[in-house]
Amino acid sequence: MDFLTSPVRYLKKKQPIYQISTLQSLIMGNYYGATTVEQLLRFGDIGLGMFHAADGELILLNHRCYRILGDGSARLAAMEDRVTFASVSFLEEGDTISLGAMESLDALRGLLDERVELLGANNLYIVRVDGVFHRVAARTELKQEPPFKKFAEVLAKDERRFVFENISGSLVCFYFPQYLEGVNTAGWHFHFLDDACTCGGHVFDIEMERGKALLNKTDRFVMDLPHNQEFQDAALENASKDEIRQIEQGGK
Amino acid sequence: MDFLTSPVRYLKKKQPIYQISTLQSLIMGNYYGATTVEQLLRFGDIGLGMFHAADGELILLNHRCYRILGDGSARLAAMEDRVTFASVSFLEEGDTISLGAMESLDALRGLLDERVELLGANNLYIVRVDGVFHRVAARTELKQEPPFKKFAEVLAKDERRFVFENISGSLVCFYFPQYLEGVNTAGWHFHFLDDACTCGGHVFDIEMERGKALLNKTDRFVMDLPHNQEFQDAALENASKDEIRQIEQGGK
């Protein structure tokens, strides 16, 4: 089975991570929609990203795409909703890893890093963690109006943080290797959605009672570039790695 | 027409640049074959790269893949020949740009840069230049044996340079944006093959009498990662940008 005789099956077999836009573009303030939810769903059933105008964090789980509002509540996105930036993939069955209590996101990150070191840190990974949490600390952003400010300024003013306590739900986790920093976050990126699909966000920290992780390794990366003029004009090499790290990890 | 109902046509419509491995991996000394010529031809009819064991520069033109030997001569590659690194795409018809005399590769690069600035420097470009040349200065490398040295050391010892005079042929030119430096060369990368398909190489300089350029802009990048253990183990963030630039531009 190969690409030209059966490309759908081949692509699904290859299980690419599909990405729209680059993280650097988002960080520099390009929040214009570059694709739609409908288009995004063609490339994956699990993923994370952000909506047009920085109007909420995006989480794609179980073939459904959710928008996180300013109070941390989740709303099912419409097919025509526009998406600024996202990474998605098709999650496949495989070995699951039983997770005991995790006192922090760093602890989970450490455990996942160990697994990635064994399997090859230069590949890409998709992990779904289903867990019971004492606490999930998360954020989203409020809708911006053009001309858009840089993402660091948006977070300073229009970031909304919330803590969910005693909740069951899923973490969507994507890992990108060092050499793709700027294109995405090098290392891990976590979004959360509760089992009832009522709340979630970009995750800063967790306390997990127990959980299980399903980890997929992938060796194909597909990136589509935005067509908006702001992307064409951006000096994308100017976003610093420190800035990316700071923004993704919540100012730590 | 979309990806899942007609992915072949969609992919061809999107006209991705397909890449196997990363330039950084090659520069750090990973010359193990990561795919075959047969596989590569499924993803493009034009391209450039390098063969297994650094055994010659690769040029793909008119659906045929050539290997440049140590004396600068070109040999049609076998379908089972292994490829370390390559960027390929399907070249589409479009407007051609008539080129007058070009006294250097820098002059051609400048002209192409102007065009890219107009069309958007954050996209990817494929250019074919058919020309009559007073002079083409090129290089290839001699086959290496494992354990492989870093590419800079290979070039110091086993690079072979040659000059072709009064020759007609084609330049295969790929442009990558700044934010993909390391994954590939930011800016332009040129390989040459003469009209008779008898000689070529990685291009350092040209003097062109006249020519025409066919430029394609693309907004999709697809990258497959090698499966060899050396790729899994490499510290890919350690190859410096200066090193990449020096190697690609011939120590200038």
From TrEMBL, chains A, B:
One of its GO terms (biological process) is acetoin biosynthetic process. InterPro entries: Acetolactate_a_deCO2ase. Signal peptide: none annotated. The keyword DNA-binding does not apply. Keywords: Acetoin biosynthesis, Decarboxylase, Lyase. Pathway: Polyol metabolism; (R,R)-butane-2,3-diol biosynthesis; (R,R)-butane-2,3-diol from pyruvate: step 2/3. Its EC number is 4.1.1.5. It catalyses: (2S)-2-acetolactate + H(+) = (R)-acetoin + CO2. GO terms for molecular function: acetolactate decarboxylase activity. It is an enzyme of class 4 (lyase). It holds the Pfam family AAL_decarboxy. It comes from the Bacteria. SUPFAM superfamilies: AF0104/ALDC/Ptd012-like. Belongs to the alpha-acetolactate decarboxylase family. This is Alpha-acetolactate decarboxylase.
